[in-house]
Design goal:
Layout (H helix, E strand, L loop, with lengths): L2 E7 L3 H12 L4 E5 L12 E2 L9 E2 H14 L3 E4 L2 E5 L6 E5 L3 E9 L3 E3 L15 E2 L2 H4 L7 E5 L3 H11 L4 E5 L9 H9 L3 E4 L2 E7 L6 E6 L5 E5 L2 E4 L3 E3 L29 E3 L11 H22 L1
Parallel strand pairs: 1-2, 1-8, 2-5, 8-19, 10-17, 11-12, 11-17, 12-13
Antiparallel strand pairs: 3-4, 6-7, 7-8, 9-18, 14-15, 15-16
Helix pairs in contact: 1-2, 1-6, 4-5
The chain binds NADP nicotinamide-adenine-dinucleotide phosphate.
């Protein structure tokens, strides 16, 4: 069985930052990622609130730079899906993936979250056929057409704004008459002539014959249900923690967020959590990077003090 000083679960901003620090501290580091390095930033068009980029930086571009930087210092980075962990309380902890089992003196959990689904009829069937969770990936399929965005947070307005550069019109469908998004994004969206709002509405079903044609919506004030024609639907209603494989092994809240102290310690010696997966995370890129660095420094201290 291959053995590492540090095994990092997840190659998003938190995991890559942790890996950058552990490899520079000469710790043998394995980073396991199932999809693509960068995590959420990989599917974010433009990032304007990460310090050091006054003109903003495209998420996919920053993801590649972060990956290259961590790889440069010797991190062993593998595309493998983590299926479980074992023996967390022991000096050598086990990580199972779809390909192998690895042993690590420390484990840093940085598996973040995935986009939540609405859970309405037609959503799964029409996913990839008009229903999408990634404007940057799929926006170009809807050039010059009308689309909807579901949600009222930062992601909905950010990605909705991005879509207005491609499509004819974006209608944001939100279940309340107040947005959760930050004020700057709200103002920018209200000023955008290609952005419209359908307040106090929910989507009850997506309909179409092998391609999305209509969102069946309900007006929550009047209870009226009607068809809203749309070529595309982009769903941005928050995230779900990717922590199912850890259930019962580390302390979590009811939403699957892992509890840590400010040193990213989970309470199990040698096991740390960082980034969006963490209770109380602000879920910002800067926080994920900072968390990852702290987790790496704490892990380094644990390893070297134990030697
Ligand atoms: P979020 O802030 O949790 O917002 C989710 C939105 O979806 C809310 O408006 C919520 O409505 C709505 N919603 C939730 N469940 C729903 C359902 N079943 N049906 C209809 N609507 C539903 O999630 P997010 O926008 O994905 O953002 C997540 C985090 O990433 C936040 O911390 C955010 O600040 C950060 N982020 C930041 C940026 C940026 O700074 N540029 C960009 C993207 C994301 P209610 O308001 O009624 O609850």
């Amino acid at each position: 069985m291959e053995e590492f000083d540090v095994i990092i679960l997840g190659g998003g901003a938190a995991g890559l930052s942790a890996g950058l620090y552990t490899t520079r501290a000469m710790q043998k580091t394995l980073i396991l990622e199932r999809l693509g390095y960068g995590g959420q930033i990989m599917i974010t068009d433009m990032i304007e609130n990460y310090p050091g980029f006054p003109e903003g930086v495209r998420g996919p571009e920053l993801s590649i730079m972060m990956e290259q930087q961590t790889r440069k210092f010797g991190a062993d980075m593998r595309y493998e899906d983590v299926t479980g962990v074992e023996k967390l309380e022991e000096p050598l902890k086990l990580v199972h993936t779809t390909e192998a089992t690895y042993a690590g003196k420390t484990i840093i959990i940085a598996t973040g979250g995935s986009h939540k689904k609405l859970g309405v009829p037609g959503e799964d069937e029409l996913s990839g056929k008009g229903v999408s969770y990634c404007a940057v990936c799929d926006g170009n399929f809807f050039k010059g057409e009308d689309v909807v965005v579901v949600g009222g947070g930062d992601a909905a307005l950010d990605e909705g704004g991005y879509l207005t550069g491609i499509v004819n019109k974006v209608t944001v469908i939100h279940r309340r008459d107040q947005l959760r998004a930050s004020k700057i994004l709200q103002e920018r969206s209200f000023d955008n002539p290609k952005m419209d709002f359908l307040w106090n509405h929910v989507v009850e079903e997506f309909q179409g014959d092998n391609q999305l044609e209509t969102a069946l919506v309900r007006n929550l004030k009047t209870d009226e249900v009607y068809k809203f024609p749309t070529a595309g639907a982009f769903i941005y209603i928050g995230f779900e923690s990717n922590s199912g494989f850890l259930k019962g092994q580390v302390s979590m809240d009811e939403f699957g967020h892992i509890k840590t102290n400010i040193s990213m310690e989970t309470g199990i010696p040698g096991v740390y959590a960082c980034g969006d997966i963490r209770v109380d995370s602000d879920r910002q890129l800067g926080n994920a990077v900072g968390d990852g660095i702290t987790a790496a420094l704490t892990a380094y201290k644990y390893i070297t003090e134990g030697e």
